[in-house]
């Protein structure tokens, strides 16, 4: 893991060194050109800070999972609270969220709610960040099937090549390195989702969405009924 982080930090750090050396050795550059290099240095530095923060959060999360406490939560209430929260958040970014579920009031999940909320947060953030559209449409669905509750987050964005679908949940994997540098992130968001869901004895997968973009589906076991 450390080697992967060092590799991802090397690229922006090399650029920063190059820009600072150029500014130091070419003091007669026009002010407009100097400002462009200052802006580039600032963006590259910000990207490095984000990489370090992502790694720190991922490491902290692993420790939290080891002492995770699960409590019974109504599937319908969890779904509706998440839907309400992100409907406004996505609308504020000029995107649209459509939600529907078929959970009845008596369907309970045994989960650590803050952790599951983190999964939804990562999935919505991932959709908006990499959807590739200014006015993205996101679809959230929930339903019970057998002894599990299923949740789906889909979008009508640019999607992911079929060859990359199976690798999305690997640590540090990004579909396109140029998109990673432009949008930020270390490629830990979906790996984090997988870790959380599996600690809840659920499963998570990615697939091409019927809306044209990416779909993510995860399951959580239903709480035992007494």
TrEMBL record:
InterPro entries: BphY/WalK/GraS-like, HATPase_C_sf, HATPase_dom, His_kinase_dom, HisK_dim/P_dom, HisK_dim/P_sf, Sig_transdc_His_kin-like_C. Its main location: membrane. It is found in: Membrane. Signal peptide: none annotated. Gene3D superfamilies: 1.10.287.130, Histidine kinase-like ATPase, C-terminal domain (3.30.565.10). GO terms for molecular function: ATP binding; phosphoprotein phosphatase activity; phosphorelay sensor kinase activity. GO terms for biological process: cellular response to phosphate starvation. It comes from the Bacteria. It catalyses: ATP + protein L-histidine = ADP + protein N-phospho-L-histidine. One of its GO terms (cellular component) is plasma membrane. Its EC number is 2.7.13.3. This is histidine kinase. It comes from Paenibacillus polymyxa (Bacillus polymyxa).
């Amino acid at each position: 893991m450390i080697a992967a982080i060092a590799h991802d930090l090397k690229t922006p750090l090399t650029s920063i060194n190059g820009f600072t050396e150029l500014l130091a050795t070419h003091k007669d550059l026009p002010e407009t050109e100097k400002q462009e290099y200052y802006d580039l240095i600032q963006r590259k530095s910000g990207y490095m800070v984000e990489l370090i923060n992502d790694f720190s959060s991922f490491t902290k999360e692993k420790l939290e999972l080891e002492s995770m406490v699960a409590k019974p939560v109504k599937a319908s209430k969890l779904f509706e609270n998440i839907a309400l929260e992100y409907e406004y958040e996505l609308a504020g970014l000029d995107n649209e969220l459509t939600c529907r579920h078929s959970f009845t009031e008596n369907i309970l999940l045994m989960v650590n709610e803050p952790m599951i909320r983190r999964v939804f947060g990562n999935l919505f953030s991932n959709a908006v960040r990499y959807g590739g559209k200014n006015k993205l449409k996101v679809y959230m669905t929930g339903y019970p099937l057998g002894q599990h509750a299923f949740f789906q987050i889909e979008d009508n964005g640019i999607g992911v090549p079929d060859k990359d679908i199976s690798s999305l949940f690997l640590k540090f994997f990004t579909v396109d390195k140029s998109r990673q540098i432009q949008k930020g992130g270390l490629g830990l968001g979906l790996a984090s989702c997988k870790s959380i869901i599996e600690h809840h004895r659920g499963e998570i997968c990615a697939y091409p969405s019927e809306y044209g973009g990416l779909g993510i589906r995860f399951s959580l076991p239903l709480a035992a009924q007494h």
